[in-house]
Amino acid sequence: MRLILPILLSLAALSAGAAGPLPVTGAGGDYDALMAMVGDARVVMLGEATHGSREFHRERARITRRLILEKGFGAVVFEAPWEPVRRADAWIRGEGRDADAAAALGGLHRFPRWMWRNTDVRDFVESLRAINAGRSAHARLYGMDLYSVPESADAVVRHVARRSVDAAALARRRYACFDDYLVEPQIYGREVEAGRAPSCAEGAAAQLAELESGGNAGAGEDDFMTWQSARVVRNGEDYHRAMYREEDSSWNLREAHMAGTLHQLLERMGLAGKIVVWAQNIHQGDARATDQAAAGETSLGQLMRERYGEAAVLVGLTTHHGKVRAATGWATPDRVKRLRPAWPESWSGQLHRIGLPAFMLVFRGDAALAERYAASRPERAVGVTYLPHDERNSHYFNVRLSRQFDAVIHIDATTPVKPLR
What we know:
Keywords: Signal. InterPro entries: Emycin_Estase, Hydrolase/PRTase-associated, UCP036794_erythomycin. This is Erythromycin esterase family protein. It comes from Candidatus Nitricoxidivorans perseverans. A hairpin with a 6-residue loop joins strand 6 (about 310-325) and strand 7. The termini are far apart. The relative contact order is 0.18. By secondary structure, this protein is of the alpha/beta class. Strands 1, 2, 3, 4, 5, 6, 7, 8 and 11 form a nine-stranded mixed β-sheet that branches. It has a two-stranded antiparallel sheet with strand order 9-10. It folds into three domains: about 5-75 and about 275-415, EreA/ChaN-like  fold (3-Layer(aba) Sandwich); about 80-145, no CATH class; about 150-250, no CATH class. It has helices at about 5-15, 30-40, 55-70, 80-90, 100-105, 120-135, 150-160, 165-175, 185-195, 200-215, 220-240, 250-270, 280-285, 300-310, 345-350, 365-370, 390-395, 400-405, and strands at about 20-25, 45, 75-80, 140-145, 275-280, 310-325, 335-340, 360, 375-380, 395-400, 405-415.
C-alpha cells in the first residue's frame, strides 16, 4: 500500500487541471484546443519521439492540413535534406516530371531513406497536392537539413552553368574535393580532419559569398533556391568536419543551419508567412528545459522561441510502447524492432498511466497544468537508430516537459512506418 498510494496520488495530480488530458479519437475536433492555442503564431513545430512510427506522421498530417486550411500556413518543412525535397515540392504544385508522390520522394535516396520515403509521408504529400489543386496560393514543401552536400553542390553548378560556362567550371573546382565522397559525405569530414584529404572549406565559402554578392538570397525563385543549396554545401562541409573535432559541437552547427533555413523561408514569405515544421522531439523542444543545456547544446525549438517568442509553438509527440522501424548503426539496414515499454518513471511512463490510448495536453495558457508537468524526468528519444539493449544510456535524457513544449500529444501504442521500396 505504501507503494500504490503515491502512484495513485501522482496520477490524480497529472490528470487534474483546467483542461486535463484531451482525448484524441480521430474525430474532426480532436485538435480544436491546439488550433485555439496556435492563434496567429507563425511557426508550429510538430515533434516525434521516434523517426520510425507511423502514428506520428498521421497525426502531424491531420494537424498540418488544418493549419493550412484554417490558419493560412503556407509551407511545410521536413527534417530532411534541402535539395532532394525540391522534387516533392514541385510535384505538389503540379510541376516536375514525377508521375506520382512515391516517385517525387525518390530524391531521398540516402540513409535513412525510410524516414521520409514511406507510405504515410507519401499519403501526406498526395494530400498536399489535392489541397493545392483548388488554390491559387500553393502550399510549399521544403527540407531544412544539411545531409545533401553532393546533391546541393551539383545543383549550384547546374544553376551557375546556365549563365556562365566559366563560372560553372570554377564552381566545380571549388567543390571537387567532395568528389570522392559522393556515396557517404560523412567520410569526407573524417578524412579531412585526419589530414588525409584536402578541405573544401575555402571553396564552399567562396562559392556562397559569390552568390550572395550577386543578390541571390533575395532574388527570384531559382536564385534563392540555389543560394540555399550553397548554404547547405558550406554549412554541411563544416558540420561533417566538426563531427571529428572534439572542441566543436556539430550538433549546434546543425541546429543553427536548420534555424537559419526556417528564418530565410519566413523572410521570403513576408510578414504573413507561416510554416509547419516536422522533426524529432529533441530538435523541436526547447533545449533549455533539458539535459542538453548543461552540455552546451541548443535546439531548433529553443532558437525559434528566442527569435519569435510566442509566435513559435512547440508540440511534442510521445509514445509508451509498440514497434518501430530503425537501424542499429548509421548507414546500416533498417528493420522493425520492438519498442520497449517506456521506463515507468519517465514522462512517457507517467502519461501511459493516465490510461487513454491517445490524448493531448495543452500547457500554454494553463499554469496549473504546466506546473504539474514541470519536474525533471527522463524522456525517450529514438532517432534513426534504436539500441534496446542500451536504451537507458542511448535514448533517455532528462526534460521538464511543460517547459520543453507548449503542448504534448501522447499516443500510447505505435506501429512502424512502411517504407516505399
